[in-house]
Amino acid sequence: MAKLYFYYGAMGSSKTANALMAEYNYRERGQKVLLAKTNMDTRDGSNIIRSRIGLERECILLDEVCGMSDAQIQSYDAIIVDEIQFARSEQIDQLAYFVDQLNVPVLCYGLRSDFQLHLFEGSERLITIADELREVKTVCWCGKKATCNARYNKDGIVREGSQVMLGANDEYIALCRKHFLEGNLYGDSKPVGFDNSDNNENK
User: Fold this and answer.
1) Contact yes or no for 16/138 (Cβ under 8 A)
2) Neighbours of 151 (CB within 10 A)
3) CB 37 within 8 A of CB 49
4) How confident is the model over 168-200, as pLDDT tens digits?
């Protein structure tokens, strides 16, 4: 029986690498996989999924997937979608249709919440209707589990702004709730790509 999966985690938890490894495992067993990402993620071009550790694979956009016919979808053994937090609720419902009516499993990977700890639209819908929720874990600089996505600049944590701002290690870091609320970005060490030489107030 096909299922709708939501693999969620904080920034830096290797969600994209996990998605690409899942796609590889399907292909290695001779199965046909449809690999996609949401239209908003343009950091590596519109048709490439690339992980922080260098894994990459060609893909299509989620809009294209949702526009496919039932027969086209049924020609695949699985659908894998990266950066699912940027999906619209109706797109999540369409993915659920593929699972329930066409018996094609769908694996979604993405963030659960934004830099203000608010749910993204796609993530909220998945939390509501997904068959299985699986956390992809990572850790804060202190060693505790990281659940918060902190947006930062040279002055420390950014608390206001647009929900969507594409970035990587130079703009986001995963923190535990305690250090997110304290605004403590790195303790006595600095994350890769962090330059806070002009401001040490958050130390």
Assistant:
1) no
2) 18
3) yes
4) 556 888 999 999 998 888 776 554 445 544 433
Domain 4-135 indexed as CATH 3.40.50.300:
yes
* 3-class SS of residue 189: coil
Sheet containing strand 172-175, edge to edge, reads 156-158, 148-153, 172-175
Largest Cα–Cα distance in the chain?
A: 58
Q: Is the dihedral of CA 162, 36, 110, 196 positive or negative?
A: negative
Please say if 23 is a catalytic residue.
no
CATH, domain 139-203, list 2.70.98, 3.30.60, 1.10.10, 2.30.30:
3.30.60
From the CB of residue 72, how many other CB atoms can be counted at a distance below 10 Å? 11
What residue segments make up the domains of the chain, in order of their start? 4-135, 139-203
Q: How many residues does the chain have?
A: 203
Q: What are the tokens at 13?
A: 């938890």
Cβ neighbours of 97 (radius 10 Å): 16
Residue with token string 């949702």: 66
Determine the Cα–Cα distance for residues 159 and 5; give it in Å rounded to an integer.
30
Element (DSSP H or E) covering residue 179: helix 177-182
pLDDT tops 70 at residue 129: yes
Instruction: Name the catalytic one among 56, 58, 83, 171.
Output: 83
H or E segment to which residue 175 belongs: strand 172-175
pLDDT at 198: 42
